[in-house]
Amino acid sequence: MLDDARRQNRLPTAPGVGYKPQHYAEILAQPGPVGWLEIHAENYMGDGGRPLAQLRHLSERFPISVHGVGLSIGGEASLDAEHLARLKHLVGWLNPASFSEHLAWSTHDSQFLNDLLPLPYTDATLARICDHIDQVQETVGRQMLLENPSSYLAFSESTWSEPDFLREAARRTGCGLLLDVNNVFVSATNLNYSPQAYIDAYPLDQVGEIHLGGHDEDQDDHGQPLLIDSHGRAVVDPVWALLDYVLDRSGPKPVLIEWDNDVPDWPTLRAEAERAQSALDRIPA
């Protein structure tokens, strides 16, 4: 359980974007409403070079959120000690405003799987997740935010709903939550439930950051809609509407635009941030 003294500073209640090196000069020259940046931790675990130099410069101008994708918080095995050490070093010198990881697993034995895979919501899974969160928070010396996954199937052995599972993980460990609104929409469509009902059950008071991203549309083997969380296109109108639903209930939160594949030019990404600012402007501070 993390003590209050080691909870990190909050991100500003402003739009952020996932940082891409091709946007470096334009972000500095014409940031628009962008008030913070997010990086993937695994891209900055090396020693020296231009990427780290640029990140140091950006961190003098913008609060930084570090988003991990490789810890395998939900994996059955122990967390990778070398990966944790590299993460500790990055967080130590960068001193980010936020650090987050996924409720998912991506390792089996010594193999790393290039995907974020779902897990059943059981008492045993919850205990393992909480042990791993405690280990991460003790190692890096700060609070972690845990992100809800995008789901393509449900496990019959699950005994917890996802919102209740996340709420209990936060209660036991002192972690915060990262609410990915696009993931909620994707999962609700794929598993045929109401995204608004999910939000109503979600512990919004624990949210330290919100993510938005694009998704691809497909069909399953029965011709039913199947959405794929791709981060490769603009946020669709129903996800923007779901963000409004969230903010009406949570109040203003830091809102990130994720666009990791088929990355657009800076004006296009900045326009998404401007739309996020408009959503925030609707909500009383």
Automatic annotation (TrEMBL):
- Coiled coil region boundaries: none
InterPro entries the UniProt entry points to: MbnB/TglH/ChrH, Xyl_isomerase-like_sf
Family recorded in the similarity comment: Belongs to the UPF0276 family.
| NCBIfam families xref list | PRK05409.1
Q: What is this protein called?
A: UPF0276 protein SAMN05444279_113103
